[in-house]
Structure formats: C-alpha cells, structure tokens
Design goal:
20% of the residues lie in helices and 29% in strands. The protein is of the alpha+beta class. The radius of gyration is 24 Å and the shape is elongated. The model has no long low-confidence stretch (mean pLDDT 82).
C-alpha cells in the first residue's frame, strides 16, 4: 500500500509492505500526527496497536520501520543511529515495514513539531474498453479515412 505524507510545505510517498500493518493504518485514514525527530530520524506517532518482532534488524536509510513499543512509524535518515542500539532509541523491537523514495536531503527538510497528514495514495483505475460487437470485423481503408475525417472535422 502506498501512503501520502504531507506537511504544510512538503510531501512524499512511502510504501508499506506489511499487509497486516497496512490494514490497521488504512482503518484510520486520513489522519494527522505530529512529526518528531529522534536520533536524527523521523518519528510519526500512530494510535494503533500492532506487534513487532524482537529480533535485531538491519535498517537502511529511507526504510520505514514500525516500533510497537512507542507506537511510531520511523523513517531512517541517520544510518548510524538506525544501525545501532547505542542511541536513545532502541530499534531492536522494531520491524521494517516499507520504504520511501524521498531523498535524504528532502527528508532533512522536515522539522520536529510539524503537523503531518497521512492518507492512502489512490491508484489510478484502468478501464479496458471492449468493443460492442464480438466479431473480428476489419475496416476497409475507405471506412477508416471517413472516420478520421469525421473526427478531425469535429475538433474544429
């Protein structure tokens, strides 16, 4: 599921690959939260309960991580604090649930205390037009020319 994250001056998308968490989040769409910056990483508090594994994980920059203890989505910006539990936040009890394609420079534009709105990204619907007739009729060149001339004259 793709989600849109928007502040007053900035917006970006993230992909949530964990279907169970995506289902929980989608139940509260659209909603607002307040950004926090913890250990140089973006924290988005969410009021949902969702368990996470307690195995150590290898987090990379721009990973979206769920921490059940703090009920937050984190977006990793500072690789050092993401990859070690020595900082103030322990990522041992978190799971990687997705990724954002926003650049690290773009993510650094966000500030602690900013309001952020989160909603689903509407995927474009694709419609396939089926012909009225099921026959495999092939048009003659004269018929095609007549239709093209009719279309061109209707645009004028």
């Amino acid at each position: 599921m793709k989600i849109a994250l928007k502040t007053l001056n900035y917006g970006f998308h993230a992909e949530i690959n964990n279907e169970a968490l995506a289902e929980k989040i989608s139940r509260i769409f659209p909603f607002e939260s307040t950004l926090e910056i913890n250990d140089g990483n973006i924290s988005i508090p969410l009021d949902i309960d969702f368990p996470s594994d307690s195995e150590p994980i290898n987090i990379n920059q721009r990973d979206v991580v769920w921490c059940s203890e703090k009920k937050c989505l984190y977006i990793c910006i500072d690789f050092k604090s993401c990859s070690s539990a020595e900082g103030g936040l322990s990522y041992r009890d978190c799971i990687i649930v997705g990724k954002t394609l926003a650049s690290i420079n773009e993510l650094h534009q966000l500030s602690s205390g900013e309001k952020i709105s989160i909603s689903a990204v509407e995927e474009p619907k694709i419609f396939i037009l089926k012909p009225k007739s099921t026959s495999n009729r092939i048009m003659a060149q004269g018929e095609i020319d007549g239709l093209v001339a009719e279309l061109l004259s209707s645009k004028e």
